[in-house]
Each structure stands twice: as C-alpha cells, then as structure tokens.
Amino acid sequence: MLANSYYLIAHDDRTGRSRLHPRATGLGLAAGLLGELMLFGRLRAMTGDLYVVSHEPPGDSLAHTLLDLLVAQPQHKEIRTWLAYLSQDAADQVGERLLRAGVVEPVTRRKLLSAQTLYMPVSPDQRNAAAWESIRLAEALGRRRSMNLADRVLVALVVATGLTRYVFFSPQQQRDCMQNMPGIMSSLPDDLVQLVQYTEAAVGSALAAGRR
Amino acid sequence: MARTTLTGPDIVTRGLASNRLGVPSVVFFGVAGAAPLTVILGAISTIYAVVGNTAVPLVYFVAALILSLFTVGFVAMSRHIVNSGAFYSYISHGLGRMIGVAAAFIALPAYAAMQIGLLGLFGVVAKGILAASGVKVSWFVCALVGWFLVAILGVLWVDLSGKVLAVLLTVEIAIVLVYDFVMLAHPHGGRVDFGPLNPQQLATPEVVAMLVLAIAGFVGFEATVVLSEEAKDPKKTIGRATHWAVFLPGLLCGVSAWAMSVNAGDIVGRAKADQTDLVFNLVAAYVPEALVNVGYMLFLTSVFAAMLAFHTSVTRYQFALGRERVLPRIFGVAHPRTGAPIAGSLTQSVLALGVLILYFVTGTDPLVHLFAWMTVVGGLGVLILMWATSAAVVGFFLRNRRRENVWRARIAPVLAFLLLSVVLAATVVGLGQLLQVTPDSPFNWVFPTAYAVCATFGIGWAAIMRGARPDAYAGIGRGTEGFVVPEGVFGRPARPHRVTADVAHHAA
After folding, report:
1. What is the rounded distance in angstroms from the CA atom of residue B240 to the CA atom of residue B309?
2. Å from B503 to nearest chain A CA?
C-alpha cells in the first residue's frame, strides 16, 4: 500500500516522529491515499481535478471510506482541495491502518500537558519491515532493477515532499536518483504525474507560509 | 458562523475552514509587521524631530486613504491569481516577468533595510530601559542581543504564533488609546488645536514627500495576501483583513500623532529634545508610573516583533525567488523538518550584523542614521513596489475585467496609481529633505539611483533567464504552485511534464 510505505519512510523508526514538517508529511500521506485509489483504477485526474471512474469498493477499508467521501462530495474536484483536506488527519488514518495490519504499535508519549499517540514499529520484526521500505527503493534504483508502478509513485512522492535523503543516504545515490527522476516521471500515467506535481506544490506553499 | 447552521457548507469545506485563519488572525499577522506601537513611539516622534513639520497626523490619514484605494484593486486582483505571493508576483502577472524580477530585486534590499533599521531603534530603546534601571550599556550591545535573538528565531523559523501576536497587539492598541485619551484630555494651553489637521498643508511638496514615511508604517499589509492559501474563505477573508490592516494603523497613528501635538504644543522642539521618549514624557505627568513602564516594555516587544516580521518577509521573498530559480537554488531549500529557509535567514542575519558593526565602528548615530535613514530608504523601496503593483493591477484588469465591477477593476486602481505616482515623484525629489542632508550631498540621489540600478539589474537578469532557462523564466511570479496551474493566459504551456522538486529540496 502506497500510503503505508510512505508513512514508514516519513517517520523515524526509533522516535516515531515525523521526519518532515508535519504538514508536509500529511500532504505526502494524502497523496499516497489518493494515489492508491488511482492505482486501484477508481480515480482519475484531469487538469488538476479528480474524477471517480468506478464505484466498486476497493479491498481496503480506508481506501473504501475515502472513495465514499469522494463520491459523496462531487462538488469538490480539485486535487489541491483534497490534498489539503486529507492531509489534516492522514497521519492518524494511515497509522491506524498500519496498526490493524500489525506493522506498528501505538505508543503514548506524554508531553508537558498533552498526551500524543504515535504509531511506530516496536518489535525487531516490525522495525526490519519498516526499514526495508526505504532500503528496497534505494536498492532497486541503485541496481537499476525495474520497479513496479506503486514503487515508482512512491519514489516520486518521496522526492516531491523532500524525503530523498532518508531513502538515498549517500550523495552518489541522491545524484543517481535525480538522474532517474525524469525517466520515472515520464513512465507514470498522467493522473499520477499530476498528483505528484500538486503534492510538491502544496508542500512548497505550506512551508513558505511557515505557519504551524 | 457557518459551522453552526444546519444547511451550511459541506464536510470538506468545514474541515478545511476549521484549521484555517479568520479575519482577525490575518489582520494580526499583517499589522504585526507595522507594529503600531513601533510606528507611534518610534517613527512618529522621529518624523516630528527629523522633518520638523507639524502635518504628521494629516499625512497618516492621507496615506491610509491612498492605500485603501490601492487595496480595492489589489484585493480584487488577488482573487484571480491562484497562488498569490507577495507584490512581485502581482507585478509579474500584470506587467510581465521582467518588471516582476525588477520588483523582486527592489523588494529584497527594501525589506532588508527596514529590518536593519529597526535594529537601531531596538538598540536605543533597550539601552534607555536598561539605563533607567541603572545598567549602562551601549546601544550596540543591545542591538546585538536583538540581532542574535532574531537570527536564532529566524533559523528555527519560529514565527510568533497568532495568539501571542494577538495578545501583544491588543495590549499595545489599548495602551495607545489610553495615552491618546490622556494627551487629548490635557491639551497644551487648555485648548485642543485642530491646526495639524488642516488639509491646506497638503499643498506643500515637503508634506507630500512625508507620505513615504507614513506609508512605511503600513508595510505589513502586503503579508495578508500571502496568507490567502491559509484563509478560511480566500475571497472574503483576505479582502476584509487587508482593508482592516490599512484602516487600523492609519487611524491609530493619525490620532496619536495629533494627540501628541495637541498635548505638547511645540511638538517639533519637544520631539528633538526627547526623541523616542517623547510620548512617555508627555503622559508621565498624568498617568501612574507603572503605566509608563508597561509602555516601555511593550515598545520593546513591539519593535522586536516588527524586526522578526521583516526578517521573515525577507527570507520568504528569498525562498520564493529561490524556488522559482530566480535566485540561486540554495535559497529555495527549506529545512525538511521545520521548513525554515536557512540560506535566506543566514544571509539576512549576516548582512544585518555587517551593517551594525559598520555603524558602531564609524560611531554613526543609531537613531537618525540607522533607524530613520534605513526605514526611509526601505519605505522608498516599498513605495516603488506599491506604485508598480498599482500599475500592475491596472494592466491586469485592462486585458480582462474578469467580471469585477468598474470601481474595483478600473476607477480605484487608476486613482491609486495616479496618487502613488505623485507621492513617489515627490519622495524622490524631496528625499534629501527627509534625510536632512545638504542639497549638494550625494545622499540626495544615491538611494533612488541604487534602486534604479537594482531594477535594471533585475530586468537584465530576467532577460538572461529567458534566453538560458526558458522553463524557469516561465515560472517567474507563479509561486510554488504556478507550474501546475492549468492556465494558458500568460503564455504558459498548459501542463509541462517536469518535476522541480529535485532541485528545491536536495541541492544541499
């Protein structure tokens, strides 16, 4: 699942904290959720707008809920709007989905006044699985192995939101990644290209406003 | 509001609005840059002292009127630009990308000068407060402390949160109103003098030139449109907030300037003697000492908030330009976790430190030559920006009125452009008088010339970009979202296939 993989890459596996600005992570996860529906063939994008092309329920409950919401709110079409809306609670939604799948466990951190529930890998198996997500991408790109569509979208979202250096550790890997990006982008279907571009733009706007 | 009505907006609209800014937050954000207390205690008394003209209150009212007129078209245009950044993106939409880049190259030094000038004021005020409590330090040390705090907060990208700003601003306004009431209740010679409000004074060129000083007190209101992406209802919230951000400081500053002159009698003489202590000395006889002390502390926090706001403005400009690849791409790199534009923040801090050291080493007066001069020069730059933006609004709606009415799309923008042209011309002619230099001094012409050089350099740079990097050139002024906005109006391809993220985040 696209958003699951993105979540595991975007959060530190030891502290459970978001590696990016929380708003950027939220936008990346929102794009992951919309991207899943596109990969399932339920959703398409045209000139910045989203269109539901099939009402058939997808196998995943979160994807199903999102599809229902998209169907019920046809007056909202813009990718920007949906990214902004979904980004608000995407981290919790995807975190709970990972919890249901047994990939993470809830950890409550007490701060001065508030308690915060983080979803993070705890057991060695969980942590290996989480770390594997980014290693898998770096390996595939480094060995020039062909990647499936979901992984190519994942790489594009990682780059678009600014997670590159958490996946590609060495400068050489980063340069390789940048050289491969145009090829990866041109291999994506048009819908996903738009999704990635709007995500990147939304992250830029969120950071430029500097509000938290 | 809409949230409580049963037939209100749908779940998505509500969900988005709940996390976004309403009119008050946007106003606070906009007015923070021109913290009213900084303007009233720092700028107005300095204007009285330096220019020696009593038409100051009138000048603030007129400036507010002109800017209100300007705001009408400005806000109307902001409704038609998807990602409305700062002034320069409006200019590049209305007058073309070359002028847009020229405007950006004027904006950077202008805001930088404003921020550095405020450091001088901060140093002097902090020195005064410490001296009153028995600690003797140089203004330079105080300014360095202020500089250090701003530099650190800038790198951490800590913007004073909306709530802190709101509380500070509310208290500031309250204390200004109390002071004004006290001063008006105790007029000099027992009679309230309406002379400073006589519109006849506007006929003198010096007064027109003073408008630039007043306009420098409104500079923050550009920031309101930057938040259009963050506002509950971009169409209404930003429009209202921008009008408030002009109206509120205009009224406060004008009334306060008048109240000062009513109470002081010979306001120019008192201002020369007391400098930034003027208002406190005027009210000290009538209010408890605690209220004066609170005023001093608020003055300091208000100057600090303004410094931080201008620091953020400069870095935000650099960040936007870096992302659009007008400036080197390093400026467009944000810290992944905090989102802080590190390079821009450090550049501005280093520049400010250099200027501070220069002033200290040469022993130049921090109040007149650092605060007053730099803010006048910065104000001139911002005035040029506003003037160009007003022309851009006219140009934008000339091509297509976009269903705005005649007042908003034609009359108000043209009137604003004409008035700002007059103010700008008078400022360039009268700048020497405002800086109080002799007619043969090079400072009469060096600052406008410097801006002209910056603008020319910007146009040249844009021309080079058009030749060498046409795709980057096409993105100028289109904001971070520009390259995906499917619009063919400005000659952009409808949807170019390219990812710019690679350069933005990872150059470092």
Report:
1. 21
2. 9
Residue ranges of E strands in A61-165: 105-110, 115-120
Query: Which of B321, B313, B319, B315 lies closest to B104 in space, CA to CA?
Result: B321
B157 interface with A at CB cutoff 8 Å: yes
Q: Given 3-state DSSP classes, what are the helix, strand and coil percentages for chain A, each rounded to the nearest 5?
A: 60, 10, 25
Helix axes B237-264, B267-274, angle to 10 degrees: 100
The CA–CA distances, whole Å, from B356 to B112, B116, B268, B446 equal 13, 8, 28, 20
pLDDT score, position B19: 72
Q: What is the number of structural domains in chain A?
A: 1
Q: How many CB pairs under 8 A join A and B?
A: 125
pLDDT (tens digit, 9 = 90+) per residue, B288-309? 988 898 999 999 988 888 888 8
CB-closest option in B479, B484, B501 to A48: B484
Residue A196: both structure tokens together: 């990635």
From residue B229, how far is each of A154, B21, B122, B417, B508 by CA, in Å? Answer: 26, 10, 33, 27, 28
Residue A185 binned pLDDT confidence (cut-offs 50, 70, 90): very high
Interface test with A, best of B233, B478, B498, B502 (most A CBs within 10 A): B502
- Residue B113 CA, chain-centre distance (Å), reads 11
Confidence of residue A41 (pLDDT cuts 50, 70, 90): very high
Least confident interval from A87-101, A180-194, B71-85: B71-85
What domains are there in chain B, each with its CATH number? 20-478 (1.20.1740.10)
* pLDDT value for B498: 39
Cβ of B336 and A162 within 8 Å?
Answer: yes
| Token output for B220 | 């923050």
Q: What is the ipTM of this complex?
A: 0.79
Res A189 pLDDT > 90 = yes
Contact predicate B119/B307, CB 8 Å: yes
Phi-psi domain of B275 (left: phi exceeds 0; alpha: psi -120 through 50; beta: other): left
CATH code for position A138: 1.10.3630.10
The single-letter DSSP state of residue A110 is E
- The single residue listed with the structure tokens 């795709």 is B471
pLDDT of residue B66: 93
Flag if B339 and A24 touch (Cβ within 8 Å). yes
Q: Could you tell me which of A50, A80, A84, A81 has the C-alpha nearest to residue A67?
A: A50
| Cα(A129)–Cα(A163) distance, integer angstroms | 18
DSSP state of B231: B
Q: Which is higher by pLDDT, B224 or A99?
A: A99
Positions of chain B with pLDDT lower than 70, given as ranges: 1-9, 32-34, 82-85, 157-163, 226, 229, 478-508
- Contact criterion met (CB below 8 Å) for A129 and A103: yes
| Residue A122 belongs to domain spanning | 2-209
Give how far B320 is from chain A: nearest CA, Å. Answer: 7
Residues with Cβ within 8 Å of A104's Cβ and at least 6 positions away in sequence, in order, are A95, A98, A119, A120, A121, A122, A126, A130
Closest to B157 (Cβ–Cβ): which among A23, A163, A210?
Answer: A210
